[in-house]
Structures are given as structure tokens and as C-alpha cells.
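## Example record

The block below lists the input lines for one assembly entry, exactly as stored, with component labels intact.
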Amino acid sequence: MNPATPLLIGRSSSHFTRVARIVAAELGVDLAFQPVYDLGSRDAADYGGNPAMKLPVLRLGAETVFGTENICRTLAERFPGGARILWTEQLPGSAARNAQEMVWHAMAAQVQLVFGTQAAGLPADNLYFAKAAEGMTQVLAWLDARIDDVLATLPQRELSLFEVTLFCLLEHLDFRPSVGWAEHPRLRAFAGDFAQRPSAGATAYRFDRPAV
Ligand SMILES: N[C@@H](CCC(=O)N[C@@H](CS)C(=O)NCC(=O)O)C(=O)O
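Predicted C-alpha cells for the full assembly:
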């Protein structure tokens, strides 16, 4: 591998990892990829040194970057040639910023639900998960009611972090079902449109399997 090639440590099945991959693709940045096969590992070294044991992590030479948004911003700073991205602080007002907050919340809740009930096998009817699932259901209905208006208010852009995160969340709900979103036609339409982008097509969710 070229030592200058940025390395992303993550999972092809992870919605946070996919956000970073889509942003990299839109910026025209080639990323080397190091999959983390076992989310049960409790060794920070398996997570690129992230003490929180969370993914993704970016390595840029000797530099390490933790956190999806940090990674996206770092890539955009270092590789400014590609798509111009609209960041959270450039969203035009409370409606759009609230929508971004709801998407980040739902992404974290999806980790809670999938990791807690599907990976760790804890009971889904426990208050901790039941409340998270209800909150996620309400967030999806809230977003469906507002998405068209929010998108209409966004300034001219090639891409916004809001759209990338929302798309990665929605497709992840089909890949690792936790709560339904079949009844949300406006979100479906948004996801269908976004899925046409080459960056989305090149980053479809799948489970990484170690070579045997
Ligand atoms: N704040 C982190 C959250 C990332 C996150 O929750 N990643 C999930 C994978 S999709 C993870 O590391 N899960 C492992 C765990 O929760 O133990 C970010 O923005 O990157």
C-alpha cells in the first residue's frame, strides 16, 4: 500500500463507517480499508487505538482521527479537490439543524439496538431498548414529515453531511432491521434518489469476512 494512502479502520456493515466512505468517494479520495471483524473485542488496538473502542478510525500517515464527523472534515480539509460539502453549521436554521440532530441520534440508537439486542443478545423488551426503539420510530416519523421542507431550504451544494448521514441510517434500517420505516414515503423517495450516486453504489452494506 502507498504510505500516503489514507487508511480507514471500520466495518462494511457499519452506517458510521459508510458515511466516511461516501464522503471519501465524493471527494475523490482512495481509502485503504482495514476491517474490524469482532465488535466483541475489548482491545482498543483492534479499533485503531480508539480508547472508546468505536469505529470508524482514520489513519493519515502518523496521524489518527477518531469519530465519523471528524474523519469527514479531515478528509475534506486534506483533499479539497472533490465535492464541496455542506456541514452542520452551514445548515440554514433550526429545522435543518434539528433534523441533523435527529439523524445522529437515530444512528447512535441503531448501534444501541443492534449491538444490544442482536449482537449481545439482551432482551429487546427491556425498557432501555424499548424506549430507544420508540424514540427511533418517532424520529423517523418526524423526519418523514419534514424532509422535503428541510431539503428545500438547503443552499446550493454538491453534497451535505446531513444527506449522507440520513441515507446511511435509512439503508442500515433495511440491512439490520430494528424499527420499521416502510410507511415513510418521503424518506423512501429520498433514499432511492441518493442511492443513485456512484458513491452510494460503491459502498453497499455487507459483512466483512476474514480470508480463510
Ligand atoms: N461517535 C462515533 C460513534 C461510532 C459508532 O457507534 N460506531 C459503531 C459501529 S457502527 C461502533 O463502534 N460500535 C461498537 C460498539 O458500540 O461497541 C462516531 O461518530 O464515529
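The mean pLDDT is 96. The longest strand covers residues 7-10.
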